[in-house]
Amino acid sequence: MLVSPTYFMKKTLIVLTVAALAGSVASAAEVSGKVKLTGTPPPEKPITLDPPCAKLQPNPISTRHYVVSPDKGLANVFVWVKEGAKPTPAPAGKGPALDQKGCQYQPYVMGVQSGQHFDVKNSDTLLHNVHTLPKVAGNKEKNIGQPIPMSSDFVFDKQEVLVQFKCEVHPWMFAYVGVVDHPYFAVTDKDGSFKISGLPAGDYTIEAVHLKAGKVTQKVTVGADDKKTVDFTLEAKAPPQ
Amino acid sequence: MVRSTDNVWLHRFACALSVATLFLVALGGVVTTKGVGMAVPDWPTTYGENMFLFPPSKWIGGIFYEHSHRLVASVVGMLTIVLAVWLWLKESRAWLRWLGVVAFFAVAFQGVLGGMRVVFDKYGLGTELGIFHATFAQLFFLLVCSIALFTSRWWMNVSKCPRDSIVAPAVCRFFTVTTGWILIQLILGATMRHQHAGLAVPDFPLAYGKIWPATDAASVELYNAHRLEAAGEAPITGAHIVVHMAHRFMALAVLLAVIGCVIATWRNTSPGSVLRKISGTWVALVLVQVALGIFTILSQRKVDVTTAHVAVGALTFMTGWMLVLMASRTVAMNPVSERVDSAVRAPMAGQLTHA
Question: N or C: which terminal CB in chain B sees fewer CB atoms within 10 Å?
Answer without folding.
Answer: N
